[in-house]
Amino acid sequence: MTVRRGRLLLPALLAAATVALAACGGSGGSTAGADAGPPQPGGTLRFAVSSDQGCVDPQQVGSNDTIYSLRQVVDSLTDQDPQTGELKPWLATSWQTSPDAKSYTFTLRDGVTFSDGTPLDANAVKANFDRVPQIGARGTLPKGYLAGYQGTTVTGPTQFTVNFSQPNVQFLQGTSTHSLGILSPVTVAKSDDERCASVIGSGPFTIQNYVKNASLTLAKRPGYNWGSALFAHQGEAYLDTVEFRIVPESGVRTGSLQSGEVDAIGSIGQQDEAPLSGAGAQLLARSNPGITFGIGFNFTKPIVSDPAVRQALSLAINRQEVVGAVYTSQTKPATSVLASTTPSYADDSSNLGFDLEKAKSTLDAAGWAPGPDGIRVKDGQRLSFPLSFANNAGTNKPSLELIQQQAKAAGIDLQVQEFPIAQFPTIQSSGDFVAIWGNLTRADPDILRSSFSTAGANYYRVPQSPLEPLLQQQAAEPDPAKRTEIVAQAQQELVAQGFYVPVAELTTVLAVASNVHGVTFDASSRIQLRDAWKSQ
Length: 536
Prior knowledge:
It is built from 17 helices and 27 strands. By secondary structure, the chain is α+β, with helices and mostly antiparallel strands. The N terminus is likely disordered.
């Protein structure tokens, strides 16, 4: 077997994806208030977010607002350096990859326990991985990371080997995510819904109290001493408690931070930047890797199975106008299906330009003729269909209302429909949508396979096409350079066929009070709070 301890080769572009700080005198460091002197333990950090996915199981959530809190509850086998993409030890002290990338052998550190006192050993990891394929619709992310999972062989209390039926080069990066965070065997044995109500992890914080759609309170884990190699200090967290409050209104979150009612807020709106900066708040920003904000389609619905409709919609969207009107100043228009901070990203902006006349001519050629009200008609059917979105981000609705106006200029009538974020997995898995707005964060290009492969969950009902072999080839290619070439082809195919219409890169922007320090982003632009503290 070939030893690959902590090594994951990524393009140089990821090295540039460092945290940007503004309005606090910072100049590109990785934490809030990094020059505030020695950390002071104790206190409560009050953090307002816009939504609650309705579940506290890290293996069953995908919304950033919910992940912020649950990332603090579980540890992962590895951690990924947000500046270099290199994998570092966390629960695992070392790992080996077989030459065919079908087997991965790990050695765990000694002495780790879950908050219920149960040892975190090789059998506990096996129980987690064996259970993942059985999770329902909410478990899309971890199931994708374990695609082709054949089982885990335990060879000692701290040694085990994870086996796959085919090469799975993305698995190692998956072990650094919250989605494969390790839970107590007692939690693993529960039903999906029971796990959504309560979980036990080994992380630096434990869940003290959870009230759905209202709040989630974390308490410091006494005796914690097995942090990631990337953490600034080893030992217990500095903060005693962290209170996550659900505050849907952007203006209310901003006002709460300005008044001192909370210490940090997420989902910063464009209109919030100037007042927050003026009030002395620190603005922390980092582009999220993975699939950009955009429009996916249910290909079983005839109206969007027409490639001319999808391609015309893409041409009718003025991405720069959307970003400039709705998003914060750090946000970029999408230039590919993948965000520019994603390993193996390839710029395809030449095929994502705004061209209203070409959008119209594309529909003309496909037989969609303008009707009396400007909306196009073909064989008696209006070019009108619903575009669904979740209410978990304040930018979603204004983005889609602007896109709705832009599409109408081409003769496409988009019916924007809102639903609660908790319903997203059910809507996607059931196929109860025609077109859907969203994004998906992951610092590995295999996010394309887990989202669009016909061999997986295939929630978009994508038909067989030249895309499928590309998705499978990249998943089995251990050579980073060759894999990057294949991923570039897959991105081009997705755009060319209109399988997905990218619009904007998600950029995580947080506002943090001036007395809050040590808040960091991980490689997926989610936060780590173990090194966070407040000056009194």
